[in-house]
Amino acid sequence: MVGQVRDGSLEPQEESALHVIATWRDPDGALLRPAVAAVELLNVLRPTVAVSVFMTSAAHALHEHGDWQHKLREDQGNLEPFVQEVRRFYPFFPAVAARSTKDFRWRDYHFPQGRRILLDLTGTNSDPRTWDAPGEFRPDRFQHWNGNAFTFIPQGGGSHDTGHRCPGEWIAIELMKAFCDFLVGSITYDLPDQDLSIDLSSLPALPKSRVVISRIRRRTSLRHDRIEVPAD
Hints:
- There is one protein chain.
- The protein is about 35% helix and about 15% strand.
- The protein contains 7 helices and 7 strands, in the order H-H-H-H-H-E-E-E-E-H-H-E-E-E.
- The chain has helices spanning about 1-5, 15-25, 35-65, 65-75, 80-90, 120-125, 170-185, and strands spanning about 95-100, 105, 110, 115-120, 185-190, 215-220, 225-230.
- Strand 6 (about 215-220) and strand 7 form a beta hairpin.
């Protein structure tokens, strides 16, 4: 696709990631090598697709905790606490791994150079020393959250600029908010019979049937009543 943009056989919109990356030039006026440009394009697409795991979890949460559909529809200020609780409650992946680049000591424990280290994401996000009733789905807990980057680590720990926390975390949150707002505010739908149980030993831990919806209808507002019309 990068090659097609450059030879003129493909003309994406100028503000698109494909066009920006394919036509970007360094200070000397040179284009990125095609392989490098392709990797940069994948770095945009890959995490966007990965957020679909969180979106599936959000759809599951909206089904399991139906009262939040009304709360989100009536007050968009509830979107971010709801999304944050989805990220805390539903484990995307259980841990992240690294190797120590040098010998060091932390809390009287010696880490030799080259030691494989696992950071327990799920355990940190459900630690009862930090979270009240961590096994319960409670979005309200994020209404006044202090933003601690070391107790809430669904997309890696530490800081975004110097640590291994995902730099696209804000984008993931905004995508999830837009998705949840669309589900509760723009459409209505049915959930046919399916297996929504979650196997926490799977990776990622998704409902066995994912979340299948049917009879999707566009939701419109007429005065204070909502009516449904067929979606295109």
